[in-house]
Amino acid sequence: MYSLLSISKHLILISILAVVAVQLLLTHSVSCLNMTNAYIHHKCYITQGKYEPGSEYEEHLTSIAQTISSTKDLSKGYVMMGFTGDGIFVSVIVQCRGDSHGPKCHSCYATALSGLRRRCPKYKGGIVWYEHCLLEFSGNDTQYQNDYDNNFCMHNPKNVSDDQVDVNNSFNRKWTILLSNLTRKAIKIENNDLTPLYAAGERNFGKYKIYGMVQCTLDITIKGCQECIGHNMVEFQDCLYGKRGGRVLGRSCNFRFELYPFVPNSLKM
Ligand SMILES: *[C@@H]1O[C@H](CO)[C@@H](O)[C@H](O)[C@H]1NC(C)=O
Ligand SMILES: *[C@@H]1O[C@H](CO)[C@@H](O)[C@H](O)[C@H]1NC(C)=O
Ligand SMILES: *[C@@H]1O[C@H](CO)[C@@H](O)[C@H](O)[C@H]1NC(C)=O
Ligand SMILES: *[C@@H]1O[C@H](CO)[C@@H](O)[C@H](O)[C@H]1NC(C)=O
Ligand SMILES: *[C@@H]1O[C@H](CO)[C@@H](O)[C@H](O)[C@H]1NC(C)=O
């Protein structure tokens, strides 16, 4: 039947430990954060084409999606399930944000599942991003490789220079250092970091604070994670530089920086 396409056992163990830690931390949850699981963006994988109603592809896709809904433990914040055989490949990947494990991940998955089905009807593949998770269907194996085809950038409409926030023109340097340091932290899984390939932190910026977050999907290697974030920080400079906040999302990694907190439990950096 369906199998969990394997990821490192080490990561799984660490993720299970993370649930406990996250639950403990959530008891101090920050009330000023916007906890809405808003829709962000989607993309239908048009080149993979559509499946016929009643086809084997549809059957497997539906079955995998239901298996994840009903029996899969989303405490890890990550699931990849697939079927290969009879000349077809089907996979479903869910990656929740580092602070959204267990029930929150389940609820994001449910929202994303109906959202992706509605937005990409009958497409064999597609991807949708919500605040708390991403969901991908694919008729091609997308595991273990950095995907650079589905990245996109969003930024705060305000320039950082408005209202003299950036009196010293150092904002770009400060957030890039913060995100680089967070990336180093995210990939140090053995250093008591209980949420693999995820880190959120903040650092002072004059009388302000910059908040940052980085995350890679759990099928990406440590090296791949670093490359993905580094690549996107350079690739999307035009979108991000000079803005008060911005984010790049993709299939393999995402990051964000803002002058306000947007995830709970950020570390002082
Ligand atoms: C929370 O975020 C959503 C989506 O970005 C927005 O529509 C909503 O107004 C926000 N709510 C608050 C209280 O900021
Ligand atoms: C999927 O894989 C097939 C066969 O390897 C390839 O021909 C096709 O271009 C791939 N499609 C996408 C969207 O990557
Ligand atoms: C922000 O700065 C850019 C470049 O200097 C300028 O083109 C743009 O109009 C500014 N946007 C706002 C909202 O002030
Ligand atoms: C600007 O530079 C001054 C002097 O180095 C420093 O005290 C101040 O905190 C800086 N402001 C910001 C927003 O970084
Ligand atoms: C962040 O990285 C910079 C450059 O490597 C380093 O100088 C700084 O100490 C780091 N800061 C933190 C808080 O890790």
UniProtKB/TrEMBL annotation:
GO CC terms on record? extracellular region
Xref: PROSITE patterns: GNK2
Its signal peptide is: 1-32
- Coiled-coil region: none
- The superkingdom of the source organism is Eukaryota
Q: Which UniProt keywords apply?
A: Repeat, Secreted, Signal
Q: Which InterPro entries match?
A: CRR_secretory_protein (IPR050581), GNK2 (IPR002902), GNK2_sf (IPR038408)
**Family from the record:** Belongs to the cysteine-rich repeat secretory protein family.
Q: What is this protein called?
A: Gnk2-homologous domain-containing protein
* Natural source organism: Arabis alpina (Alpine rock-cress)
